[in-house]
Amino acid sequence: MKQIKSLSLALVLVMGLQTQTFAWGAIGHYVIGKLAEWQMKSTTVERVEEILQKESISGVGVWMDNIRSDKNYNYTNTWHWVTTANGEYDKSIQEEAGDAYEAFLRIKENLKKGGLSTQEERDQLRMLIHIVGDLHQPFHVGKPGDRGGNDVKVSFFNKETNIHAVWDSDLIASKNMSYSEIATELQKRINPSLIDKYTKTTPADWLKEAVAIRPAMYDIPENGRIGYEYIYKYYHHTEERLIAAGIRLAQALEEIYG
């Protein structure tokens, strides 16, 4: 009986979710930022928050999504994703205005060099924090042809949506936990060995990691209906991506400001 009540509650929760079009939704970006804060030296966190004008690393994770309606930042519209057929970066299939992969590399170098105005540094720092998260949402490292899964229609607990939106926010929301609760649970899994594993990679490796789990991402029945079984089989990929992003964001910020 308890199981039935629990499943019913989860079903109501998931059916009530609103489709998100941004990577990880707010919760995912908050989790990544919080995990990064916990891996960083306190002095580095203080320096970063000083540049952010007292905003937190976790709190600014959604800033780049929030400015999409601001015409002053239209030049960043394509910096939320990168397209790769096989895990290799191919400039010829990217947007002319740039992509998440090249934007991350360029912004990180800009911040390391310095010489930016106060506002420029703040903006670029907020962009970097967001883009690291986006590069770890597998459908933001999408394959050519389906707009990162946006064209793949599914029914998630009878809610008509697309597989991109499921990975952005529905999988996370199905856990019915706050971002701080999720971050706390994931932090328990982080150890020196895991940190070593994720910090010995390059951004080029991040693309390959996303491609490696594509078979799971597209494991959708012909009728397009997914629910508990899909969550049970593949939610662990979401957790792994959030952990990797948090560790790597901490690494990037330490390299710049540590």
From TrEMBL:
Hydrolase among keywords: yes
InterPro entries, A to Z: PLipase_C/P1_nuclease_dom_sf, S1/P1nuclease
Any single biological process term in GO: DNA catabolic process
Record carries keyword Kinase: no
Keyword terms, alphabetized: Disulfide bond, Endonuclease, Glycoprotein, Hydrolase, Metal-binding, Nuclease
MF (Gene Ontology): endonuclease activity; hydrolase activity, acting on ester bonds; metal ion binding; nucleic acid binding
Protein name: S1/P1 Nuclease
Organism: Belliella pelovolcani
